[in-house]
TrEMBL record:
It comes from Strigops habroptila. One of its GO terms (cellular component) is membrane. Signal peptide: none annotated. PANTHER family: GLYCOSYLTRANSFERASE 8 DOMAIN-CONTAINING PROTEIN, GLYCOSYLTRANSFERASE 8 DOMAIN-CONTAINING PROTEIN 2. Keywords: Glycoprotein, Glycosyltransferase, Membrane, Signal-anchor, Transferase, Transmembrane, Transmembrane helix. It holds the Pfam family Glyco_transf_8. This is Glycosyltransferase 8 domain-containing protein 2. Its main location: membrane.
Length: 360
């Protein structure tokens, strides 16, 4: 009898061991599964955060364009040309005055531009109070939005690098290329030099245009002579800017520009001289010798300087960005190379903005 009960005890022990092993196995499998479910995704999640965020930040290209009353079609054509010629992730900052914002918003939302990423920013002209000297010869140059470029860091919060463009431009290249412009250490901005293109020199000579500091600042004034800038120094055009916001804030560029606006109100240092009004001159002073340069093909200018000034078609096709600076705008008449501009124009759904063309 004793003999027969022995195997039974043996079996019970084996069974118990098996149960424990099975339990351990189940626990191990559970632990593995738990880790798989809980840890791997969190590791993955960390990885995606690490991988994606900086890239997304880098890839968003902020482009600032003003939408002024009476010339909103210009902003629309500029935006349309940029958006159509790039795969980049562009975020448009469209800056307007309180009265014009609803119009530009409706225009975008009711046209093929409704696909774009954009923010509408209101510019308060009160910041200019007491800083602008009235200039009767070209009142359009005193429009508040001409000074938006002075206040970029106040309008654009989260970006390190920003592109500012005048509204009378068309972009034919990929805006990513312009955004990739290298700024030298310590430079808050890059501009186009007015002496950079042989083809523009011809144009400049033929229409008596200014491309030196002499054309913008009044060298009869002591304050200007005290700057020690030679009058024959080549000027630059601030209608296309690639700006570094960190440097801009660090160097207090906005404060410096305001200081020169204020001095001009008191001493008339530049507004009545020949050049492009009151927004260019303070920039020429503040950025003198402290700016990087933009590839010349990214700013072909003076298309609005004279209704008779023509560039060669081949040259204009090669150009990455066209700028109708001057009095003769492509939505107006007379003007030159209007076909290149009209390619990108989108009619105003409200019908308020109309192109001015000779009666056919």
């Amino acid at each position: 009898m004793n003999h027969s009960s022995h195997p039974t005890g043996h079996m019970a022990l084996l069974k118990k061991i098996n149960q424990i092993l099975l339990l351990l196995l189940v626990l191990t499998v559970c632990a593995i599964l738990y880790n798989k479910v809980h840890q791997v995704p969190s590791a993955l999640k960390n990885e995606t955060v690490d991988l994606e965020s900086p890239e997304e930040m880098e890839e968003e290209i902020p482009v600032v364009i003003c939408a002024a009353a009476g010339r909103m079609g210009a902003a629309v054509a500029a935006i349309s040309s940029i958006y159509s010629n790039t795969e980049a992730n562009v975020l448009f900052y469209i800056v307007g005055l309180k009265t014009t914002i609803p119009h530009i918003r409706r225009w975008i939302e009711n046209s093929k531009l409704k696909e774009i990423k954009f923010k509408v920013v209101e510019f308060n002209p009160m910041v200019l109070k007491g800083k602008i000297r009235q200039d009767a010869s070209r009142p359009e140059l005193l429009q508040p939005l001409n000074f938006v470029r002075f206040y970029l860091p106040l309008l654009i919060q989260k970006h390190e690098k920003v592109i500012y463009l005048d509204d009378d431009i068309i972009v034919q290249g990929d805006i990513q290329e312009l955004y990739d412009t290298k700024l030298a250490p310590g430079h808050a901005a890059a501009f186009s030099d007015d002496c950079d293109l042989p083809s523009t020199h011809e144009m400049v000579r033929s229409v008596g245009m200014q491309n030196t500091y002499m054309g913008f600042l009044d060298y009869r004034k002591q304050a200007i002579r005290d700057l020690g800038i030679s009058p024959s120094t080549c000027s630059f055009n601030p209608g296309v800017i690639v700006a570094n916001m960190t440097e801009w804030k660090h160097q207090r560029i906005t404060k410096q520009l305001e200081k020169w606006m204020q001095r001009n109100v008191e001493e008339n240092l530049y507004s009545s001289t020949l050049g492009g009004g009151v927004a260019t001159s303070p920039m020429l002073i503040v950025f003198h010798g402290k700016y990087s340069t933009i590839n010349p093909m990214w700013h072909i200018r003076h298309l609005g300087w004279s209704p008779d000034a023509h560039y060669s078609e081949h040259f204009l096709q090669e150009a990455k960005l066209l700028h109708w600076n001057g009095r003769y705008k492509p939505w107006d008449y007379p003007s030159v190379h209007t076909d290149l501009w009209e390619n990108w124009f989108i009619p105003d759904p409200s019908g308020k903005f109309k192109l001015i063309r000779p009666e056919s």
